[in-house]
Amino acid sequence: EIELRKKKIEEDLKIDNIENKFATHYDAVEQQLKSSTIGLVTLDEMKAKQEHIVREREKKLAQKKAEKEKERQKEIEAKQAQKNKQ
């Protein structure tokens, strides 16, 4: 049980190359921006779209993180309940 927890913590805290972390985020934003932009647009329109896409992406990432944390908390509570039964 302790080893399993250690492995989960190690996976969560794995430190990748900093460039890789930002590159993935940037690539996803850039791809979405390219697909949503058709024709000529003004600089202000482009910046507004980019900001909107970045905010949406950050919101999704925060949601995923919250879901993972909630799931992990449920697992911990289930293990505690099982431990208390014994």
Automatic annotation (TrEMBL):
Superkingdom, natural source: Eukaryota
GO cellular component, one term: nucleus
Gene Ontology process terms (BP): chromatin organization
Start and end residues of each stretch annotated as Disordered: 53-86
UniProt feature coiled coil, ranges: none
Skewed-composition ranges (Basic and acidic residues): 53-80
InterPro entries: XAP5
Protein name, UniProt field: Protein FAM50 homolog
Organism this protein belongs to: Obania subvariegata
